């Protein structure tokens, strides 16, 4: 990983020297530009991009993994508002695009039910999820799975990094998972003190807003709560 200008200089220099070169630039958190230079004729090209990003926890349903496959049009405002508008503006396909995407996702969690998808038909076997058919690149790929409720714990999964250069050394990646205890559900009694400004400056609409807020707060109280209101002007 280099600074953007330095990386582009190295890429252009390698390309002008006749070497096969590649450059990945991150335009947005979920938008990357891949450049390839000096590809020999009649050659198959494999581009591998490694991305680490968190999965989302959906209360009551488990984990959700979302993978973007399309660059949607972005709101850019008036001309000149977004300095890198050219880098994030893509041609919009009129109809169905030719390229397709296939997915193979390994879920390393105990499952209480088969994974589901809100966007594509999927198949699952031994924790490995695949698409029933290749995906048209017109929407994100979303896969969800539920896991059993775990006891409060702290675990660390460690994966040795690929030593692609001398700087990697003995470094490794770690995933720290902290499972909090389930809330007891016990409601504690509250002492609510309201300091109310009823001076002349509050006359009219401000005072009506004050009444609405106070009414809402009082409606939220239980039998064991205590309320005190202090008015001043």
List keywords for this structure.
3-stranded antiparallel β-sheet; 233 residues; 14% helix; alpha+beta; 14 strands
List the helices and strands and how they pair.
Blueprint: H1 4-16, E1 21-28, E2 31-37, E3 56-58, E4 62-67, H2 85-88, E5 100-101, E6 104-106, E7 122-125, E8 128-131, E9 135-136, E10 141-145, E11 153-160, E12 172-179, E13 191-197, H3 205-219, E14 226-232
Parallel strand pairs: 13-14
Antiparallel strand pairs: 1-2, 3-4, 4-10, 5-9, 6-8, 7-8, 11-12
Describe the overall structure:
The protein is 14% helix and 32% strand. The chain has 233 residues and is an alpha+beta fold. Strands 3-4-10 form a three-stranded antiparallel beta sheet, with no helix packed on it. Strands 6-8-7 form a three-stranded antiparallel beta sheet, with no helix packed on it. A two-stranded antiparallel ribbon has the order 1-2. Strand 13, helix 3 and strand 14 form a beta-alpha-beta unit.
């Amino acid at each position: 990983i280099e600074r953007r200008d330095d990386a582009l200089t190295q890429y252009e220099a390698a390309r002008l020297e006749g070497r096969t070169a590649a450059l990945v630039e991150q335009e947005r958190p979920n938008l990357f530009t891949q450049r390839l230079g000096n590809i020999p004729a009649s050659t198959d090209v494999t581009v591998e991009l490694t991305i680490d990003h968190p999965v989302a926890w959906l209360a009551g349903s488990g984990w959700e993994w979302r993978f973007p496959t399309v660059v949607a049009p972005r709101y850019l405002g008036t001309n000149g508002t977004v300095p890198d508008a050219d880098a994030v503006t893509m041609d919009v396909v009129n109809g169905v695009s030719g390229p397709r995407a296939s997915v193979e996702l390994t879920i390393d969690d105990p499952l209480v039910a088969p994974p589901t998808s809100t966007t594509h038909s999927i198949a699952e076997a031994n924790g490995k999820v695949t698409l029933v058919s290749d995906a048209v690149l017109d929407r994100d790929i979303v896969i969800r799975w539920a896991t059993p409720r775990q006891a409060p714990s702290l675990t660390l999964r460690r994966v040795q990094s690929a030593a692609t250069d001398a700087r990697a050394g003995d470094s490794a990646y770690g995933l720290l998972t902290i499972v909090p205890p389930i809330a007891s559900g016990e409601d504690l009694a509250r002492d609510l003190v309201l300091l109310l400004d009823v001076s002349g400056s509050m006359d009219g609409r401000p005072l009506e807003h004050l009444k609405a807020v106070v009414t809402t707060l009082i409606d939220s109280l239980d039998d064991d709560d205590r309320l005190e209101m202090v008015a001043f002007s």
